[in-house]
Amino acid sequence: MFEWLSRWLKKEQTPLVKATVQTNVEEETDDLIAALLTSPIEGTFTAGVALEPSWAQDALVAAGVIDPPAPEQGRSGKVAFNSYFVNTMYEGETLYMPLWNYWVRTASYQFDVDERFGDRRGRFFVNADDDSADTNALVSAINPPQLVTTDADRRDLLYGVFDWLSDHTTLLMSDTAKLGGESYDEIYADAKQRGGWPELSEYANCFVRHGKIGWAACFSKAHVMANILVRCGMPRWRIGIAYAHHTEGGAPPTASHVYVAVYNFDAWWVVDPTFAQPSHPRIVPAFAEFARRGLPVPDGVDIMRFALVDYQKPFQISVPGGSVLTHVPFLGRKPPQRARS
Q1: Are 66 and 341 in contact (CB under 8 A)?
Q2: Which of 22, 107, 194, 293 shows a CA-CA span of 20 to 30 A to 91?
Q3: Apex CA 334: angle with CA 330 and CA 339, to 5°?
Q4: Which own/partner pairs from 198-202 qualify as long-range (CB within 8 Å, at least 24 positions apart)?
Q5: Domain residue spans in the chain?
Q6: Segment 123-158, tens digit of pLDDT
Q7: 310-321 pLDDT tens trace
Q8: Is 93 helix (H, G, I), strand (E, B) or coil?
Q9: What is the pTM of this model?
Q10: Which one has a higher pLDDT value, 76 or 41?
Q11: 8 A C-beta contact, residue 170 and residue 212
Q12: Rg (the chain; Cα; Å)
């Protein structure tokens, strides 16, 4: 198991190209995060340069990310940032810009927004904070960290939930697939009648009655995992359900695969619950093996096993209500630090 995890940790990250100046904020408060992310990005993007609206300028100067404007420049109302072209697998070059501690796509329309209904963030996390008896029984069975306040806590929660799902889920992809004699549609009949996805309490009720959670295709798996993570204490601004293009199995390049993205240890981590299966190596025990051998415990590991899925460059992301994320992030490591004068 140790060798398996070591191989994964040596995975190369896709580089960004045409980068000139990179920005980074290391230790800022949630208030600063909210200040930088709450408002949609304005301005224009030409020649690889993104223009930030003036509302962010003071916060960025205070954080040491940018230098204050020279007196002779005055306030132009906008702050120029270098942006980056990323070679995607199926969309050609896509423009990204640095925002707080990571990169995001400059095109906000690729966020989970439907023009017919407006911003629908949270629509896949209805009642994710449910406190019913069934949900409490589910959380008790998962046994997450009592407090989720540090990066290490969040790492333990993320991979602990993944390991737990590997042992406590059943694939229900057809009417003939049953869990306790019930099909997926029968287990989640109320959700089907509503015309939406099951709520956390319904997943919990399935677990209480059958000892496992029934799930279906990739979105179903990501939906289950993301809602459980929120309920177990993962901060809402740190998590999303991501959608990336792929050509697995001969699918057209417009096809999408869905998985979970979590921000922790100054990086976005990819965790694909499609591989949360009994045969999958358990990650938390592997991390414990690092500690047992006196080695530094890894910050995390990306679980992205499909070779033809553009995991690190999702085109869309769905977030919980209350999240301040407004743009689709690049899923990977933090940028190098910019030297501060």
Answers
A1: no
A2: 22
A3: 130
A4: 198/223, 199/126, 199/127, 199/130, 199/227, 200/127, 200/128, 200/130, 200/135, 200/227, 200/228, 200/231, 201/127, 201/130, 201/132, 201/134, 201/135
A5: 2-318
A6: 799 999 999 999 999 999 999 999 999 999 999 999
A7: 999 999 999 988
A8: strand
A9: 0.76
A10: 76
A11: yes
A12: 21
